[in-house]
Amino acid sequence: APSGSALTNNGATVNWHSQKLKHVVDSGDFNRAAVDVVFKEALKMEKVKPNTKESKVLSGYIMSTLFYEPSTRTRLSFESAMSRLGGTVLSTESAGEYSSAAKGETLEDTVRTVEAYADCIVIRHFQEGSAKRAAAVASVPILNAGDGPGQHPTQALLDLYTIQREIGRLEGIKVGMVGDLANGRTVRSLCMLLSMYNDVQVYFVAPEVVKMRDDVKAYLTARGIKWTEASDLHEVAADADVLYQTRIQRERFLDMNEYAAARGKYIIDKDLMRILKPTAVVMHPLPRVDEITTDVDSDPRAAYFRQARNGLYVRMALLKLCLADGHPDIPL
Ligand code: CP
């Protein structure tokens, strides 16, 4: 499992700049007020119709995507978000292969170059800390679309938004996080956001080789959040408001025997759904392999495709807050 660096919490103080969102790099850059602003905008984005004033708010702006790792949801929802708000997109997928990174260009030089062509840059990179490195040299907003096993802050925001929309509250919720918690950047970032709400309880259910890392546990403890490591998924399912399943990330294992040992240990299937509370939901950042069986998809508590759709609205909100003229709720 990755060793992990110390997690920071800057609040939103360093993140607002002239009534705009400066960067979206780390979940720790958000405080509750900042999350509220994003969610208020996201709710409005659910209602944006084509060819209206609201659908042209980013007209004339250009977003660049630099993806060094594969993606379906994050890249396409960012691109859709920009298009739905009237902006345009410069897209690079497989950037390690098809950008000048293949010729040895550093991430810093690529960012310094691309910022001349685009008003914001969305980056997915295989190295933890890469989005922070990009933000350190960038003069345009950097949106972290996942930095190796580090952070995935826009996913965490859409996850939190989904919990709010599905359960109706964030205070006092019980969240079971399941699967590859050592490599799962989504659960790491989500824990940081959940830690801002009162009486949250987190259960970690993971195979031995991919347990939640100590930095996240320390982060939660320091903020008075109760967390427990459990081995019985059925017990957790009976108590949870949200069961957040994750994929065992084959690509992050050096030893395939360890991958084989971790895979298939915790599966959400029809039997498990019988234990889940009628008011609870199952979430997953996707993609899934086999950790949620497909016969669960028709259960109304299966929220993962609604969750993916919410990614569009939250990313529309983030792009607007980064690029459009000052937002009245944001400090100068
Ligand atoms: N949830 C998520 O990050 O999905 P993609 O890898 O498809 O972008």
From TrEMBL:
<dbReference type="InterPro" id="IPR006130">
    <property type="entry name" value="Asp/Orn_carbamoylTrfase"/>
</dbReference>
<dbReference type="Pfam" id="PF00185">
    <property type="entry name" value="OTCace"/>
</dbReference>
<dbReference type="InterPro" id="IPR036901">
    <property type="entry name" value="Asp/Orn_carbamoylTrfase_sf"/>
</dbReference>
<comment type="function">
    <text>Catalyzes the condensation of carbamoyl phosphate and aspartate to form carbamoyl aspartate and inorganic phosphate, the committed step in the de novo pyrimidine nucleotide biosynthesis pathway.</text>
</comment>
<dbReference type="GO" id="GO:0006520">
    <property type="term" value="P:amino acid metabolic process"/>
</dbReference>
<dbReference type="GO" id="GO:0016597">
    <property type="term" value="F:amino acid binding"/>
</dbReference>
<dbReference type="GO" id="GO:0044205">
    <property type="term" value="P:'de novo' UMP biosynthetic process"/>
</dbReference>
<comment type="pathway">
    <text>Pyrimidine metabolism; UMP biosynthesis via de novo pathway; (S)-dihydroorotate from bicarbonate: step 2/3.</text>
</comment>
<comment type="subunit">
    <text>Homotrimer.</text>
</comment>
<comment type="similarity">
    <text>Belongs to the aspartate/ornithine carbamoyltransferase superfamily. ATCase family.</text>
</comment>
<dbReference type="InterPro" id="IPR006131">
    <property type="entry name" value="Asp_carbamoyltransf_Asp/Orn-bd"/>
</dbReference>
<keyword id="KW-0665">Pyrimidine biosynthesis</keyword>
<keyword id="KW-0808">Transferase</keyword>
<feature type="domain" description="Aspartate/ornithine carbamoyltransferase carbamoyl-P binding">
    <location>
        <begin position="22"/>
        <end position="164"/>
    </location>
</feature>
<dbReference type="Pfam" id="PF02729">
    <property type="entry name" value="OTCace_N"/>
</dbReference>
<dbReference type="GO" id="GO:0004070">
    <property type="term" value="F:aspartate carbamoyltransferase activity"/>
</dbReference>
<dbReference type="GO" id="GO:0006207">
    <property type="term" value="P:'de novo' pyrimidine nucleobase biosynthetic process"/>
</dbReference>
<dbReference type="InterPro" id="IPR002082">
    <property type="entry name" value="Asp_carbamoyltransf"/>
</dbReference>
<dbReference type="InterPro" id="IPR006132">
    <property type="entry name" value="Asp/Orn_carbamoyltranf_P-bd"/>
</dbReference>
<feature type="domain" description="Aspartate/ornithine carbamoyltransferase Asp/Orn-binding">
    <location>
        <begin position="171"/>
        <end position="321"/>
    </location>
</feature>
<protein>
    <recommendedName>
        <fullName>aspartate carbamoyltransferase</fullName>
        <ecNumber>2.1.3.2</ecNumber>
    </recommendedName>
</protein>
